[in-house]
Target: TetR family transcriptional regulator
Amino acid sequence: MSSTQTNPSGQTTKTQRQVEKARRREQLLAAAARLFADRGFAAVSLDEIGTEVGVTGQAIYRHFESKQAMLGVLIGQASHHLLSSGREIEVECPDVLVRLQRLVALQTEFALSSSEIIRVQDRDLASVEDRIQREIRRTQREFIAIWIRALQSIHPQETTDQLTVRAHAVFGLINSTGHSFRGLAKRKQTGSFLAYLKHMLPEMAMQALYAAPDEPEEER
Model:
């Protein structure tokens, strides 16, 4: 029996069971992100993740092969989202200034909405299965390459290594706010501080991307 349905127009649609399974899968990933970010991957059990969404730890195996697989999906999904969005921006924005503005906006939105995933990646990427870890790193390199191609247009004198450092510096500027935002949210300043970050971070990031380094002084 087919697990999908076909509507009158001939399009395939998901059954209610498939929709519910997909929803539960996303709930489990969200719970895992919260717990991994708060306590670390090694300190969290499948039972604890299941409890967060009202299922047993064993029930998680209907969606994921293991806790390690959950970690790989969590980080991998985020990396693929950034890459696919970055590719769209590169195609849609021949103007370099507009392209960089949209890339900065993409990274800012990700940092402010997915700070837990950023913390998990910073601490626990090494715990992902080697094969999946290599795929994640390849995806992230391709995303950085999109930034480098844009930066080459405004800093043609800089090497690829220098442009890579420039891009990573901007990532650090934006992503590190995930840690700051977490603390401020606990002090009930979430709304006002979030509005501040959405305005301030892109401004600072664009200045960093366009900044021209001073000429090094000659040694005496």
